[in-house]
Design brief:
Structural class: mainly alpha
Number of strands: 0
Strand content: under 5%
Largest sheet: none
Radius of gyration: 23 Å
Helix content: 55-70%
Shape: globular
Number of domains: 2
């Protein structure tokens, strides 16, 4: 007989086995500025100083507020080895997988819990969140969201639910979906409390939201920040942003249901702006949305409340990153599907558990084996920054972002002429991304071509918001390479701006 303890151990072990390759990964992309070069993380005091500091270092724009995540990095730095950071991500993912099984077991029994836990543990779309160290924000937020929902819908504990919500918000902003998930559960009949208890939840949510909002605004407001918008949305009208966001539902559905093809990047021209409702990409996205709505309605009518809850979870968890309410810094990012995929695991587990035992074993074994293999093979892509960029060039050959990132690779290798060639390849694909112009100017200064650098910087200033930030950021990168002449040339431009 499968006891609860054995069930959770199986799920945790599966989560660890498919991701064990992360222990050989190193630092990649945002790991480097947020952790490796961040003095706040390197100090033990960063555990508490992180609560009065932005997530991104101040000299790199000071964006976002995730103090619990920063505190976890500061703790890990006491050990120091990069493998330890990856091991902690592995444990966070195992904990989330077990929590999925815990919630599922309460509602549907051991068989369904095993299915949901295993499917979540091995889902290939999670690789970016688990294998990239800074993906920990997704893992921590997901765990606290699950704890908050469990405390409300299973224990009816206002205090514990609100505490988990607060911890989730301090890990990543998308934990703000907790009230929506709990209300959806109440609508479906999961431990609906009295009106007085509901009022207690509501008031506690308001208090937490107000405290979090005031704290976040107080810390981030004085800092110079860039406009965080997906490159594909630069210069786009609000209607075009929403049309493109709906079209992206086709990618989101594919990644959740059939994640064979994974990409680091979904930038222009891999994905381009949708400007008309007659565009077939919009129609395909709308069809995916309609199919989801039909499944929710069907589950509701048939009284399949767990399936309905899981399907609703997907939509609620996607809302903050779907570019429908407000545009965010990406069109599609696989790491952001970590929390929505909890809903998929809950829904599939509730549906598939009704299969005959032999068919169930065959179906689950096939799914776990196929997904686990895809996940294990994807993990090395996040080995380091170079492997990620090479993956971009291979998986997203139409995107400007791969060549743009090669500019930095060539600069680090002391090859400014190749960096300029990469800049030209990038801007030939997409010419509205401000960062590529500051990177190109860095390369042009390094190769002794100031006139070319000036032309690149003029284009930058047509596109950028708070342009001084771009100059300061790139100057710090030039100094890190020992190129003081380029750094001085870039910093000289800062005096032309009145920005802080």
């Amino acid at each position: 007989m499968l006891t609860a303890r054995r069930l959770y151990l199986v799920v945790a072990a599966c989560a660890v086995v498919v991701y064990v390759g992360v222990l050989w990964n190193r630092w990649a992309l945002d790991d480097i500025p947020i952790i490796y070069y961040n003095p706040l993380v390197h100090s033990l005091s960063g555990i508490w100083r992180g609560f009065v500091a932005p997530y991104w270092p101040r000299d790199l724009g000071g964006q976002l507020y995730r103090p619990l995540t920063i505190a976890s990095y500061a703790l890990d730095w006491r050990i120091g080895h990069v493998a330890w950071f990856h091991a902690m991500n592995l444990l966070w993912h195992a904990a989330v997988s077990v929590m999925v099984a815990v919630l599922k077991r309460r509602w549907s029994g051991e068989r369904a819990a095993l299915v949901s836990g295993l499917l979540f543990a091995v889902h290939p779309v999670h690789v970016e969140a688990v294998a990239n160290i800074v993906g920990r924000a997704e893992l921590m937020a997901a765990l606290f969201v699950l704890l908050a929902v469990y405390a409300a819908l299973e224990r009816d504990s206002v205090g514990w639910s609100v505490a988990a919500l607060a911890a989730g918000l301090l890990s990543k902003e998308n934990a703000a979906v907790v009230p929506g998930l709990i209300v959806w559960g109440w609508m479906l009949g999961f431990r609906r409390p009295s009106r007085r208890r509901m009022l207690g939840y509501l008031l506690s949510w308001i208090v937490v939201a107000a405290a979090y909002g005031v704290t976040r605004q107080t810390i981030l407001n004085p800092l110079a920040r860039i406009e965080n918008i997906a490159p594909v949305f630069v210069g786009a009208a609000p209607g075009e942003i929403r049309l493109t966001a709906v079209a992206a539902f086709a990618d989101l559905a594919r990644l959740l249901l059939f994640p064979l093809t994974l990409r680091v990047d979904y930038s222009p021209g891999e994905r381009t702006l949708v400007t008309s409702p007659l565009d077939p990409r919009f129609a395909l996205g709308l069809l995916c949305l309609a199919a989801w709505g039909a499944l929710v309605a069907l589950a509701w009518r048939r009284g399949r409340r767990v399936e309905a809850f899981g399907l609703g979870w997907i939509a609620i968890a996607l809302l903050p990153v779907a570019n429908l309410v407000f545009p965010v810094g990406f069109l599609v990012a696989e790491r952001t599907l970590y929390l929505p995929s909890v809903g998929l695991a809950l829904a599939v587990g509730a549906w598939i558990k009704d299969l005959a035992p032999r068919r169930l074993r065959v179906a689950v074994a096939a799914l776990v084996l196929a997904a686990g293999l895809r996940t294990a093979l994807r993990v090395p892509v996040w080995r380091d920054a170079t492997s990620v960029i090479l993956s971009e060039l291979e998986d997203s050959p139409r995107s400007y972002d791969g060549p743009a990132r090669m500019v930095g690779v060539y600069l680090s290798g002391g090859q400014p002429d190749k960096a300029i060639a990469a800049y030209r390849a990038s801007t030939a694909i997409y010419d509205r991304y401000p960062w590529v112009y500051i990177w190109g100017a860095d390369a042009a200064f390094g190769s002794g071509r100031p006139a070319l650098a000036d032309s690149m910087l003029r284009r930058l200033e047509q596109l950028c918001y708070q342009c001084a930030y771009y100059y300061r950021y790139e100057a710090s990168g030039a100094l890190a390479r020992g190129d003081t002449a380029t750094a001085d040339s870039l910093l000289a431009r800062v005096r032309e701006f009145r920005e802080p």
